[in-house]
Each structure stands twice: as C-alpha cells, then as structure tokens.
Write a structure and sequence with these properties.
The complex is a heterodimer of chains A (115) and B (119).
Chain A: E1 3-5, E2 10-14, E3 19-21, E4 24-26, E5 32-38, E6 44-50, E7 56-58, E8 64-68, E9 73-78, E10 87-94, E11 104-105, E12 109-114
Parallel strand pairs in A: 2-12
Antiparallel strand pairs in A: 1-4, 3-9, 5-6, 5-10, 7-8, 8-9, 10-11, 10-12
Chain B: E1 5-7, E2 10-13, E3 19-24, E4 31-38, E5 42-50, E6 53-56, E7 65-71, E8 74-79, E9 88-95, E10 109-110, E11 114-118
Classes of the chains: A mainly beta (115), B mainly beta (119).
C-alpha cells in the first residue's frame, strides 16, 4: 500500500519569501502525486498533480512541484508567498493500480505567513 | 462554479444520539468519497461510491457508521449511536471517472465539511 509523509508539521515564512514544503512517498512504482490546500473552514482544493512526463509541474496560485524518483519526493514550492497562502497543505498519493481514485493523504503542513 | 454541498456545517450532539450528514455531489460526478479529518489521524477515507454503488467502506466502524447514496444527488453518512471519539470534520468529495478513463484525471472536489462535536 502507498503512504505519504510530510515531515514538517508547521512552517512560518515571511511574506515575499520563498516556500518549500516537503513530501515523501512510499510506493512500489511511480504513483500519482497531488498537492491540495485547505483554508480555514474550507474543503481541500487541488493545487497540482503529477502523473508522468515532465517532473516539474505547475499548478494554480503560482505553485510548482518537482517529482524526484531517486528521493521518492514531491516537494511543493512557491518563489514568493503572499499572506493569502497561509493555509494547510496536504500531499497525497494515489496508486496506479487503483482505478477508483482513492487518495492517501499526508498529515499536512500548516503554513503561517508573517508580515 | 459547481460545488459539493454538505449539510449541516456544524453539528453538536450528545453521546448516543443519531447523526446524519448529507452531501450533494457535483451534478454529473459519479464518484463520491467520505473522509474524516481529526488532529490525531489527519484525513482518513471512510467510504466511497461509484455510480451510487458502495465500493469500499472498510475505513468505517461498521457497528455504528453507515453510508448510502439514495440517489445520484445525495450521499449520506450516518452515525448511530454517536460517541465523543466521533468528533471530527467530515468531508465529502466527488469526482468523475469515465468508462476506461483515468479517474485521477478529474480532480476531487471537496465540500466545506461538517464539523461534528459529540459531547
């Protein structure tokens, strides 16, 4: 079964600074990888996804993520954060053998943006 | 924008009471998921449906939880009797999967959740 680890529970970043959120997965092959964002009181919203091909994927809100097979990682980045980026971010993995769309979510990383 | 609608947004109830949470998936979506979010466990998959048929509910405590889709526009999650440890935010998400299509191509759309507090 697949699993995903987000090593950082909480990150504080200054507005305008760069942001990188870590995600490591465990799966026997290359899984489907996703990043979701959750604002307070809201459901999750898809930021970006990786299935195959180019290992650098672009998402919404200026985010990008890079798949590194050798490190089993799928880290999320943003060059310059805005106060509105304060939220909780979830990495998720889906098994390529699964046709039903089940996702295994990481524990999440809470991002705080300071002025 | 089409969205997944969950009701109620908040529910406070006493232990032993029945709780019913409702979800209206996006029209045309044929896959519905129920997730539970807690501080300790994070996001856990409880059950999911394809074309209204339950595919997997192994994540649910069977003795007290039940999930159904009476029709394509309504999914319900019921807890009877409720316990304090059921306190959590329950999310419904819907997506689409065409015949032979890759379901992951369609992003999951999440509702805003039902925050359940059992005292």
């Amino acid at each position: 079964a697949q699993s995903v680890t987000q090593p950082d529970i909480h990150i504080t970043v200054s507005e305008g600074a760069s942001l990188e959120l870590r995600c490591n997965y465990s799966y026997g092959a290359t899984p489907y990888l996703f990043w979701y964002v959750q604002s307070p009181g809201q459901g999750l919203q898809l930021l970006l996804k990786y299935f195959s091909g180019d290992t650098l994927v672009q998402g919404i809100k200026g985010f990008e993520a890079e798949f590194k097979r050798s490190q089993s990682s799928f880290n999320l980045r943003k060059p310059s954060v805005h106060w509105s980026d304060a939220a909780e971010y979830f990495c998720a993995v889906g098994a390529t053998t699964d046709s039903w769309g089940k996702l295994q979510f990481g524990a999440g990383t809470q991002v705080v943006v300071t002025p | 924008d089409a969205r997944v609608t969950q009701t109620p947004r908040h529910k406070v109830t006493e232990m032993g009471q029945e709780v019913t949470m409702r979800c209206q998936p996006i029209l045309g979506h044929n896959t519905v998921f129920w997730y539970r979010q807690t501080m300790m466990q994070g996001l856990e998959l409880l059950a999911y449906f394809r074309n209204r048929a339950p595919l997997d509910d192994s994540g649910m405590p069977k003795d007290r939880f039940s999930a159904e889709m009476p029709d394509a526009t309504l999914a319900t999650l019921k807890i009877q009797p409720s316990e304090p440890r059921d306190s959590a935010v329950y999310f419904c998400a819907s997506g689409t999967a065409g015949s032979g299509g890759l379901v992951y191509n369609s992003p999951l759309h999440f509702g805003n959740g039902t925050r359940l507090t059992v005292t």
